[in-house]
Amino acid sequence: MAHQLRDLHGAARAVAYLMLAAAPYNFVTGVLMKFGDPLPELIALGVTSVVLFVVGLACLRRPAAMPRLFWLIVPFAGAGVITALNVATRDATMGPQLFYLWPLLYAAMFLNRRFIAGTVAQISAGHAITAFQYQEGGQALLDWIAITVAMAMTGVVVAGLRERNDRLRAVLEAQATSDSLTGVANRRAFDAELDRMAGDVGPDHPLALIMIDVDHFKTINDTWGHAVGDLALRTVADALRGAAEDRENMVARLGGDEFAVLLRAAPYAAVRYVEHVRTRVRDTTGLPCGPPSLSIGIAVAPDHAQATDDLQKAADAALYRAKEGGRGRSMMAHLPVVSRAG
């Protein structure tokens, strides 16, 4: 998404801590230390302090209750408040201008480059309002250029570091959740996806769990060598991925020669998927051992089970029957027995 917030938890803490720190600071420096200034200005600064405190507390305690738009306008609102306070206190010195770093860093950490550029532009304009109003022309120009350049460079550097960190994290996450040999998901990713997909299962939104074993895989390794065995596993993984027909799915290697597929499909569609897999494997050329044979068990929620544990047990039982029946075949799980009272 073009306007996606990267981290609600981190953004909420960043806003909350700033607001809760800025509220008493603003009250002390803008109200308590300014007695004698016009009463409307003191009231405005006092009300601003209260608003900052309330918003900060809301962000800390109930960030999910804040509207989505709030998190996107935070840097602009923050820069606007800082400009208003600088104008109200007639303070164009460099110290108060450092508060502009907060909205800039917020945008650089949690929003995209367009927001960063917009925040820099607003900071530049806001500081210009203060500097050219309360400083001499030459000094105001120098300070305005310095602030604008410093904020722009800070935004570029922080955004660059954040994007580099995102790329590194994506690589680490991929390594942690994928099988290095076949490129499909590993057991850890499979378990997490099973829980996620099973949370949205119903008669109109079924979930098929398909368990696959490569028949006589040890014989392939012993006869043709591990390199051919690895190639056979990659062939099966490619067939499992390629047969999904754009359905929501996950292919995982659970270990050794055992694979599993999660597929949004009813029983008939799951059987058709399995047949497509067999066709793809059978049409494979270039394997010294020939196309590997597959034993497959199929279970579908909610037809065969409701809970994830029961779904796995049903698919495992179907796979066991496929092996016991002579291997190289597919078996559908049995429908659960419904007891009738009386």
UniProtKB/TrEMBL annotation:
Domain of life: Bacteria
InterPro entries per the UniProt record, alphabetical: Diguanylate_Cyclase, GGDEF_dom, Nucleotide_cyclase, Rev_trsase/Diguanyl_cyclase
Signal peptide boundaries: none
Domain GGDEF stretches: 205-335
GO CC annotations on file: plasma membrane
GO molecular-function terms, A-Z: diguanylate cyclase activity
Pfam families: GGDEF
GO annotation (BP), single: negative regulation of bacterial-type flagellum-dependent cell motility
Keywords: Membrane, Transmembrane, Transmembrane helix
Parts of the chain that traverse the membrane: 12-36, 42-60, 69-88, 94-111, 141-161
Full protein name: Diguanylate cyclase (GGDEF)-like protein
High-level lineage: Bacteria, Bacillati, Actinomycetota, Actinomycetes, Micromonosporales
